[in-house]
Specification:
The protein is of the alpha+beta class. About 40% of the residues lie in helices and about 20% in strands. Helix 12 packs antiparallel against helix 15.
């Protein structure tokens, strides 16, 4: 047997390979072949046990004929894999190789076209929902979701001023420019917005795409049991990049010396890598899915960026790492390119891995979780917020106190009047002490803390944080 098959048998089950002991689990095998044909191709190897013992198949010629009959009877549209027999250790294995099919989506005849479509996710075969089935059809036809027209809408439903500002134009862009960018497309003799245009710059985007938003959370520790801070971002899609990065920067500074960070421009998180991953998630998300916003989760030891949609048919995670790229949303991707947010197709993921290596970070992880893609970026060292924990309510209270001190220093009574507070302990423990401990405010008479003329003023750190929206 060639070295190729030796290496093949040493691989774990994954998105392009599955092992079976014999032909007894017929439905499971048919699901795997359907999933391979719909996703990125793959090989089903028969005659190998779960613990990777080579058992072989008895009477391989009749078993090959039986396998071909099972495929012909079970899978629609017709699927004709390449089936071959190989001999190793005097035992014969059957290998059914399936390529990405141009007749997708294939489905199990017994389950029908609506419920019998499967795709390959890791080493599992997952049933496709209606949105994914529609995407499988579109990719065969060469139609992108974000290029499709929205005939019920007009140019008035686009924020043309925001579009112009994004591409550094002084005046709203005209119809010709919008057509060039495929933000307007022709439909039955008139120009209407494309789905991509509404996703990017729709005035009332939520009416058509209620799940196009970004959920950001900072969690205490390394799991999701305790959330410390969170925001929801509904910005126009290109503007969401900076809003997401602002949230990450805000929490990268907790426990660090702000002035040192500002002076040296050194951060405790790899901003370059994270920006690449954020842009990748916004550009390649499957916006046809429902109930699945983009999610950013900041843990003590890592940051996870998750977007709806599995890899495009024909793509694997290995392909991504090698710089191979397929564009799910060409309208969105082109606009990001116009804004110089994307430098060159396919270079983002390899650059991300290279930067991680240069920074001495663990290799980032890319995985398919359910019907979503997840990028995991690990931190050089843990950023803990234990011991400096402030509730959301207190954070808002500290913000209010800082705003009151931005004009002039205030004494306790004056600050309470500004904040409309009557209960002194509430002011001291919920407003004043947290702000002092975080070095956001300071005493005007630090040597006489109990002086009746004592006032409090905002520090340079507090002013910079509030001015930059980082608190």
């Amino acid at each position: 047997m060639s070295n190729f098959y030796h290496r093949l048998l040493e691989q774990p089950e994954g998105n392009t390979i599955e092992f079976k002991q014999d032909l007894s689990s017929s439905k499971s095998m048919m699901k795997a072949l359907v999933a391979f044909a719909n996703t990125a191709g793959g090989r089903l190897i028969i005659g190998v046990s779960d613990d990777r013992q080579i058992l072989g198949v008895e009477d391989p010629l009749s078993q090959e004929e039986r396998l071909c009959s099972m495929i012909a009877d079970s899978i629609v549209p017709r699927l004709v894999p390449n089936i071959e027999m190989i001999t190793i250790e005097d035992k014969t294995l059957l290998i059914a190789e399936v390529f990405l099919s141009s007749s997708r989506p294939h489905f199990l005849r017994s389950e029908g076209a609506e419920t019998g479509v499967y795709v390959r996710l890791g080493s599992t075969n997952r049933q496709a929902d209606q949105e994914l089935i529609a995407e499988l059809r579109r990719t065969v036809e060469g139609v992108a979701f974000d290029e499709m027209p929205m005939p019920e809408l007009s140019i008035d439903d686009l924020d043309t001023k925001a579009i112009a500002q994004s591409v550094r134009e002084k005046y709203p862009v005209d119809k010709t420019e919008l057509q060039t960018l495929k933000l307007l497309v022709s439909h039955q003799g008139r120009l209407v917005p494309s789905k991509g245009a509404i996703i990017l710059f729709g005035r009332e985007r939520n009416l058509s795409f209620s799940d196009v938003w970004v959920q950001c959370g900072r969690f205490t520790g390394t799991d999701k049991s305790d959330i410390f801070d969170h925001i929801e971002i509904y910005d126009h899609l290109p503007l969401a990049v900076d809003s997401i990065m602002l949230f990450l920067k805000k929490h990268a500074m907790r426990g660090a010396d702000f002035s040192e960070i500002r002076r040296k421009d050194v951060w405790s998180i790899p901003l370059g890598i994270l920006r690449e991953v954020v842009i990748n998630a916004l550009v390649h998300a499957d916006y046809s899915q429902r109930g699945a916003p983009i999610r950013i989760a900041f843990f003590d030891d890592r940051i996870e960026i998750e977007n709806p949609g599995i890899l495009m048919p024909g793509m694997t995670i290995k392909d991504m790492k090698q710089g191979i790229s397929r564009i799910r949303n060409p309208v969105i991707a082109r606009f990001f390119r116009e804004m110089n947010l994307i430098e060159q197709w396919g270079t983002g993921v390899p650059r991300m891995f290279k930067q991680a290596q240069e920074l001495g970070l663990p290799e980032p992880q890319i995985m398919e979780i359910g019907m979503r893609m997840r990028f995991v970026v690990f931190l050089a060292q843990q950023i803990s917020i234990q011991g400096n924990k402030v509730t959301e309510q207190v954070t808002e209270q500290v913000k209010k106190l800082l705003e009151s001190l931005k004009i002039e220093p205030l004494g306790t009574r004056e600050a309470m009047q500004y904040l409309q507070l009557n209960h002194r302990p509430t002011f001291l423990y919920d407003y004043l002490k947290p702000a002092l401990q975080a070095n956001l405010i300071e005493m005007t008479q630090p040597n006489s803390p109990k002086s009746p003329t004592q006032k409090y003023r905002i520090t340079s750190k507090g002013r910079q944080l509030t001015d930059n929206g980082m608190l």
